[in-house]
Design a protein that fits this description.
The complex is a heterodimer of chains A (111) and B (120). Chain A is mainly beta. Helices cover 0% and strands 44% of the residues of chain A. Chain A is built from no helices and 9 strands. The radius of gyration of chain A is 13 Å and the shape is globular. The model of chain A has no long low-confidence stretch (mean pLDDT 96). In chain B, strands 2, 4, 5, 6, 9, 10 and 11 form a 7-stranded mixed sheet that branches. In chain B, strands 1-3-8-7 form a 4-stranded antiparallel sheet, with no helix packed on it. Classes of the chains: A mainly beta (111), B mainly beta (120).
C-alpha cells in the first residue's frame, strides 16, 4: 500500500486535458515538494516534473504540476497518443524513516 | 552525459546471496546521493534507500532496513545493492537511481533496471 494515493487509471481522447491527483499528508506533500515520473512499459521511469511545478529540459509545457495543502496534481493538456504511460507522484517524508514516498501510479490511456 | 549502467539480470535460489551493480559516469560520483528503487513487474515503484558516496552516509526506507545493504566503491564510481539471503518475494526489477546534491532532491537519472528472479 503506497503512502501517496493516486487514481489507478485515467483516460482521455487526443487533444483533451486530463488531471492526475496525488493525495498525501502533512508530513510529506504538506511539507515537501512533489515530483512526478513518467514510465513507459519496459523502460525506466523518467523525471517529468520536479519541485512541484518545474519541468526538466525537453519536457513539453503540456505537462504541468501544482500543489495545494496535502494534495498535488499533474495536468496534461493537448493529450497525445504518446502520452499513454504510467505516472507516479513522489515526495519526501523524513518523519518515519521512509524518506522518498511514491504514489501507487496512474495508468493514462489515450482513447 | 550522465549514465547509470546496471549489471545483467540474475536468477537465484532462495537463501542465496546476491550483489547487483550500477556503474556511473558523467558526474562527480562523490557529490550526489545514489540509491535503489524496486518495482515488481506490473506494480508500482518502491524506494529502498540511498547512500552518499562522499561520506558513506546511508538512508534506508523502513521497509528495506535490515533486508538489503547499499554500498559504493568510489574508486570505480559504482553503487551496489546486496542481499545476504534472498527470498522469493525479492523477485523484482531493481533500478539504480541518482538523486541530486541533497537527499530530498528528485531522482534525476535512472539506470536501465536489473531483473532479479528468485525461484527454487
Amino acid at each position: 500500500q503506497s503512502v501517496l494515493t493516486q487514481p489507478p487509471s485515467v483516460s482521455g481522447t487526443p487533444g483533451q486535458s486530463v488531471t492526475i491527483s496525488c493525495s498525501g499528508s502533512s508530513s510529506d506533500i504538506g511539507r515537501y515538494a512533489v515530483n512526478w515520473y513518467q514510465q513507459f512499459p519496459g523502460t525506466a521511469p523518467k523525471l517529468l516534473i520536479y519541485e512541484t511545478f518545474k519541468r526538466p529540459s525537453g519536457v513539453p509545457d503540456r505537462f504541468s504540476g501544482s500543489k495545494s495543502g496535502t494534495s498535488a496534481s499533474l495536468a496534461i493538456t493537448g493529450l497525445q497518443s504518446e502520452d499513454e504511460a504510467d505516472y507516479y507522484c513522489a515526495s519526501w517524508d523524513d518523519s518515519r524513516n521512509v524518506y522518498v514516498v511514491f504514489g501507487g501510479g496512474t495508468k493514462l490511456t489515450v482513447l | 552525459d550522465v549514465q547509470l549502467v546496471q549489471s545483467a539480470a540474475e536468477v537465484k535460489k532462495p537463501g542465496e546471496s546476491l550483489e547487483i551493480s550500477c556503474q556511473t559516469s558523467g558526474f562527480l560520483f562523490t557529490d550526489y546521493w545514489i540509491g535503489w528503487v524496486r518495482q515488481v513487474p506490473g506494480k508500482g515503484l518502491e524506494w529502498m534507500g540511498i547512500i552518499h558516496p562522499g561520506d558513506f552516509g546511508v538512508k534506508y526506507s523502513s521497509s528495506f532496513q535490515g533486508q538489503v545493504t547499499i554500498l559504493v566503491d568510489t574508486s570505480i564510481n559504482t553503487a551496489y545493492l546486496q542481499w545476504k539471503s534472498l527470498k522469493a518475494s525479492d523477485s523484482a526489477i531493481y533500478y539504480c537511481a541518482r538523486h541530486g546534491l541533497a537527499a530530498a532532491d528528485p531522482i534525476s537519472y535512472w539506470g536501465q533496471g536489473t531483473l532479479v528472479t528468485v525461484s527454487s
